[in-house]
Amino acid sequence: MTRVITILAFFFSFTAMVATGESREEKPNAEADSVVNQSRPYEDAPPLIPHDIDDYRITRSENACLGCHLDFYEVPFSHYLNEHTNEQKFGEVAGIRYNCVQCHLPKTSLGIKKKIDIRNPRPYEDAPPTVPHLLVDIEISKTANTCLECHLDDESIKPSPSHFINGHTGEQKQDQVTGTRYNCLQCHLPSASIKASLESKGGSKNTCIKCHSVLLDDRLSKPVKLWAGSVHAEVGNTCDGCHGGDPRDPTGRAMSLERDFQAAPNKKEVATFCGKCHQGLSAKYMTSTHWKKRAQSCVDCHGSHTIQRASSEIVSEEKCGKCHDYDVADKFNNILQSLQSRIETSEEQTKLIFGFPIEPIEEDLNRVWKKFRQVRMVSHTTDFKLIKIETEKVDALLESTNSEISRLLDLGEERRLIGYSLIVTFLLLALVTYFYNKRHE
Fold it and tell me: How many C-beta atoms surround the C-beta of residue 64 within 10 A?
């Protein structure tokens, strides 16, 4: 009997130790990660289906994929989240995720390739094309979809007919995409996420780059070198993305008006020039004092070919102090730096949570980052009242998120203390039992 008690004591001690997280150390399985990565045409792409799906039915009332995946294989957290209402359900995938083969291609399909050609940015044959521009101004919510504001109006970039067919009822609409197609970013990955070489982005095949990079006139060749280190090069936006023209034509016709070529804009045209992609930022900037007085243009702060990712470093005394005191700009810069620092601290705190699901907190932090980007966007208005309103929204959401992080950290600490107490208790019980047994042998 005493031996049984001893074994149980050690067993419960080990269980308590696991509960406290002391045995949490696990080495990453590099081999498993490699297998997973090989099943994706590009980084963060939906994984390919490793089996045949000829007999799989996906209808309004039946989904053969979920028959197995809900019971035996993990379905990602994101698939249960209704991105329009933020309602979280488990055991019931969101409507926009119901048609599995909309994103997950069978691995047996032909034409899967690793490299991306920016002129035809599809990772595999018939895959959804990648988004060739930045997504800073894009909003997709229950009440707004800024992608469709452009893509529904321009016939040349209008969504394919399949986007207007209800896959469950067969109903055809002309100007309203179906629910499963509403969240554009579910299928269309930004080009910035594609890890491709300069050649695969079209660098070596782009005649603008190929020609200008070897010109002796530094005024004409230098922009290529500057562009190569910019965020535009990183996301695959080459010369024609801004200046138009035809980068496939090695003759002078590449820069003809017929090919929509536009040379360097003058100061008054810069905001409209950049606004071809950055519509939201451009619109807000055109309400600012900078725009109304024609004192500044986009390139004065961001540069023309050296454009970097948005950061507080753009706001500096060297730039802002040329026209006015730096105090106002410095005040705004401090707001940005403080917000970013606090959000990053919250992310670090989230990593310390153990034993509780942190996906809801990660979703909240994503919303905080989106609100923070809104503050940066509103800053182009130079309207401090508006900036203050947006900053307060970020503060409120971050405060709520931090409260939940603190609650889970406190619960984790309490659980650890209880675990340690159990370890000590069961070890003492084991020792007492052992010596008692020794004494009476």
Answer: 14
**Neighbouring residues of 45: CB distance < 8 A, sequence distance ≥ 6:** 123, 189
CB 238 within 8 A of CB 247: yes
75: tokens are 């379905």
Sign of CA dihedral 214, 215, 218, 221: negative
Closest CA to 208 of 251, 265, 164, 259: 251
Amino acid at 283: A
Instruction: Indicate the SS3 state at residue 314.
Output: helix
| CA dist., res. 109 & res. 112, Å (int) | 7
Q: Where are the domains of the chain?
A: 1-22+326-441
CA angle (264, 269, 274) in 5-degree steps: 75
Cα–Cα distance, 82 to 183 (Å, whole number)? 11
Rounded Cα gap, residues 84 and 11, in angstroms: 47
Q: Please provide residue 118's backbone torsions phi and psi, each rounded to the nearest 5 degrees.
A: -60, -25
- Any idea what the Cα angle at residue 153 is, between residues 263 and 371, rounded to 5°? 80
Answer for the pair 248, 239: CB distance below 8 angstroms, yes or no. Answer: no
Distance (Å, whole) CA 319 – CA 33: 46
211 neighbors 248 (Cβ within 8 angstroms): no
76-80, long-range: CB < 8 A, 24+ apart:
77/359
With CA atoms as reference, report the closest residue to 368 among 396, 345, 408: 396
- Reported pTM: 0.51
- Helix H or strand E segment including 31: helix 30-38
Q: Please provide the DSSP assignment of 109-168 as one string.
A: -TTB-S--BTTB--SBTTPPPPB-S--TT--BSSS-BHHHHHHTT-GGGPPPGGGGB-TT
* Cα 296 to Cα 302: distance, rounded to the nearest angstrom: 11
Tokens representing 408?
A: 């889970």
As given in the structure block, the two tokens for residue 203 are 């660098």
- Per residue of the chain (441 residues), what is the pLDDT tens digit? 555 555 555 555 555 554 554 433 333 344 434 443 445 555 556 777 777 777 777 777 778 888 777 765 567 777 887 766 667 776 678 777 777 877 777 766 544 444 444 445 565 656 677 776 656 557 777 777 888 887 887 777 788 888 888 766 778 887 788 877 887 877 777 654 443 333 333 444 678 888 888 778 888 889 888 888 888 887 778 888 888 888 887 777 888 888 888 888 888 888 888 888 887 788 888 888 888 887 788 888 888 888 877 777 788 887 787 778 888 788 888 888 888 899 999 999 998 988 888 888 888 888 888 888 888 888 888 888 888 898 999 999 999 999 999 999 999 888 888 888 888 888 888 888 888 888 887
